[in-house]
Amino acid sequence: MNAEQLHAIIAAGLPCAHLEVDGDGRHWNAVVVSEAFNGLRLIARHQKVYATLGQKMHTDEVHALSMKTFTPAEWAAQGR
């Protein structure tokens, strides 16, 4: 899997106002900004992103994913 494929999978499963993905093919980092995170705690936000990946986490296509998740308001408050 490459960064473009992972980006497409997350974007297809979650409405993202902003999405960055990078990594080495097994270990990934993502910044995900979505209205879907409004009112959710961190663990629930991460679960939403993991849900977009489905079996890819279980079959080791995506070995590790570190994420930073924001609502659009949180993202804007950071000056982005």
From TrEMBL:
Belongs to the BolA/IbaG family. InterPro entries: BolA (IPR002634), BolA-like_sf (IPR036065), BolA/IbaG_stress_morph_reg (IPR050961). Pfam families: BolA (PF01722). PANTHER family: BOLA TRANSCRIPTION REGULATOR (PTHR46229), BOLA-LIKE PROTEIN 1 (PTHR46229:SF2). SUPFAM superfamilies: BolA-like. This is BolA/IbaG family iron-sulfur metabolism protein.
